[in-house]
Amino acid sequence: MKNVILGVFGGILTLYMVVISLCLYGIQTRKNEVENMLSQVVEGVLTAHYVPEPLRTPQTETLSQEAVKKEVEEEIRMRISSDTQTGVSVLACDLDKGILSVQVTGSFELPGGFHKTFLFSKTAIMDRQAGEEPLSCIRFQVDGGDYKVFTLRPGEKYPVPKEPEGTFLGWQAAQGNSHAAWESNMTVQGDETWIAKRR
What we know:
Blueprint: H1 2-49, H2 65-79, E1 85-94, E2 99-109, E3 115-125, E4 136-142, E5 145-152, E6 171-173, E7 192-196
Parallel strand pairs: 4-7
Antiparallel strand pairs: 1-2, 2-3, 4-5, 6-7
Helix pairs in contact: 1-2
């Protein structure tokens, strides 16, 4: 009888240790996922919308804080692969100065119905170091206005913006572009403007 009791107790203890191990693994995995993804998203959004002052024009539009929050939320939703529920707060947003700070709250359910919540924040600042190559401005225009503006260094892979709403037949090179026509796998060679073709 004593051996049976010890066996049952040992089995329960082993099961408890397995559950604890799975919980710890799940927590760390989700934390790593959100932390890495947050860095990529914040830096990507800031790079996509920051336009250095020398490259700005009267037509250059700056996203509102609410629009930035929406874009960050969409990027996180597309990238996250686990069942983690996330909430996004924009702590600081100054695209004119190249500053974006975002806080993400993640929550998920552990075995046994317990809930775990964690918090991560990421601040990205655009800073051109001495000796770096000057940034190039890549503009995508729709119906006469800026649709997307990217600032990248020469040699970087060309950005591909989301297709604009309505009838869209591709991107047409503006006069003076280094690239005469749109091609896949292009690299940045300088300032360029692309205009959406309509019917």
